[in-house]
Design a protein that fits this description.
Number of strands: 6
Bound molecules: zinc ion
Shape: elongated
Strand order of the largest sheet: 1-2
Structural class: mainly alpha
Number of helices: 8
Length: 172
């Protein structure tokens, strides 16, 4: 990644890691099987991943044993509300491919999200771009629930038409 703006504001957070809400340090997360499952903003139940005990021995960080910052916040990436329509469409094209192929990894490796407008997003590698698209759009069904079918189609077509124009302009 050579974009200096990206280096300055984007922070890569490895999967399975999280940034502490108190001290902002990144640690590998631990799965607390004895904790009740949490429900995310899409109504999906998931296991709770907590930060391990950290900080100096005599002064443990108050963020120990708590949930990390949301990945988007920790990574410094924009949420749905801060995306252009074209980038929203790019996120939706990816989650559509996930649904159509029935497998996240296959969609990611063959039809990754391609952001165009937001400089941080356009500079992400394919794996991180896909992770972002799923984080902000949810699944295809969740996107339709949230936005309505007409709006999802409008955004999707916008991104699809843009890709077609790019392809014909480059003569491929
Ligand atoms: Zn901490």
């Amino acid at each position: 990644m050579t974009d200096t703006q990206t280096v300055a504001t984007y922070r890569a957070i490895e999967p399975g890691h999280g940034a502490c809400q108190t001290c902002n340090e990144v640690h590998p997360l631990t799965n607390r099987h004895n904790q009740p499952a949490a429900v995310n903003r899409h109504g999906v139940r998931h296991k709770r991943w907590l930060l391990p005990v950290h900080g100096p021995r005599n002064n443990r960080c108050a963020g120990s044993h708590t949930e990390p910052k949301a990945w988007l916040d920790a990574a410094g990436l924009p949420s749905w509300d801060h995306l252009t329509d074209l980038d929203r469409g790019a996120a939706l094209m990816f989650v559509w491919k996930v649904r159509q192929e029935g497998e996240y990894a296959y969609a990611r490796d063959n039809y990754p999200a391609r952001y165009r407008d937001h400089p941080l997003l356009a500079a992400l590698d394919a794996r991180e771009a896909c992770r972002h698209a799923s984080a902000v759009a949810g699944s295809w069904a969740e996107a339709i629930d949230r936005l309505g079918e007409a709006e999802v189609e409008r955004l999707y077509d916008l991104a699809l038409n843009y890709e077609r124009e790019q392809r014909s302009a480059s003569g491929v």
